[in-house]
Amino acid sequence: xxxxxxxxxxxxxxxxxxxxxxxxxxxxxxxxxxxxxxxxxxxxxxxxxxxxxxxx
Length: 56
Hints:
- The protein is mostly helical.
- The radius of gyration is 13 Å and the shape is rod-shaped.
- The longest helix is centred in the last third of the chain and has 28 residues, at about 30-55.
- The protein has 2 helices and no strands.
- The protein has helices at about 5-25, 30-55.
């Protein structure tokens, strides 16, 4: 499995946590940072999946 897939999953989880913390605390900046990090993680996972598919 490509490293980007695991790193992307980590970023998605971290981003979700940041987003929830931001919502709970009312910190819009933290909430937006979380959404961005989650999006980056999704793209990173997609890149890793594409690399895995290309190796087959």
